[in-house]
Amino acid sequence: MFPQVEWEESQVEVFMFISSAFETIKFEVKNDLGYLIINREEKLNALNSTVLSELKELFEALHNKIKEEKVRGLILTGSGDKAFIAGADISEMKDMNKEQARKFGELGQQVTLMMESLPIPIIACVNGYALGGGTEIAMACDFIFAQESAVFGQPEVKLGLIPGFGGTQRLAKLIGRGRAKEIIYTGRNVSAEEAKRIGLVIEVFKDKEEMLLGAKKTFSKIMKVGSNAVGNSKKVMNVANDLTIKEGLNAELSSFIDLFGSEEMREGTTAFLEKRPPNF
Questions:
Q1: 13 an active-site residue?
Q2: Segment among 21-30, 175-184, 239-248, 271-280 with least mean pLDDT
Q3: Which of 13, 156, 182, 267 does the annotation list as catalytic?
Q4: Superfamily for domain range 9-208+227-273
Q5: Residue among 136, 148, 193, 264 flagged as catalytic
């Protein structure tokens, strides 16, 4: 799961308060550090309703139990080497009506907001593709590490859509409106090197193992300082964003759902599944 982590089964704590066995994510705690893996390797860890629902359940449990369970931080990555999260699951999205799109977009936004309000640091360790919802989930973390082969992007316009899980709001705040608009308007990919240069990523590593070790080393420093101080620092630093992002998210969601059922969206998703260029 995490190639650099070697421990006996007895050393691993799996939260007993999690009521159901997860199908699409894996979660473990070792030495007060949580490890969360999006576990749909055969689908490049794409986000469908099940993944988002399970993430919501986990983050709700963490919010309720985090103090007594003494979790000091969380590393989030994707299963395998090809993808962190390749995006939302297009095969599920293709035939959604507006109400289904609303629920899907709201679920994705709820997950990202819960990640931001979790009173512990979250480091996204991006392995491979982090497109669309993958970039959006990564941006909801406190900061992003990436391996050299990582690829970021918000390619929703190529499907006749816009980002629906916070991409239009968070990307601009992280890298500036001009750069964010150019990336979203063109739908182009962003390499790990460029992502670091523009401030989306804070560190690039040779491979996944080195990246996860880097995250562990960072947390070893964080765990030496006051956990309440870190948690409150996160809360205060997010206050300004929280006061404005929810209004932006409402506008984003309205536009996101309005595009479902449009000719562009149908053509974009159909072309993607048929592995051909869209005819817009």
A1: no
A2: 239-248
A3: 156
A4: 2-enoyl-CoA Hydratase; Chain A, domain 1 (3.90.226.10)
A5: 136
Contact 163, 113 (CB under 8 A): no
263 is catalytic: no
Q: Which residue ranges make up each domain of the chain? A: 9-208+227-273
User: Which tens digits make up the pLDDT trace of 155-193?
Assistant: 999 999 999 999 999 999 999 999 999 999 999 999 999
pLDDT digits (tens, 9 = 90+) for 203-225: 999 999 999 999 999 999 999 98
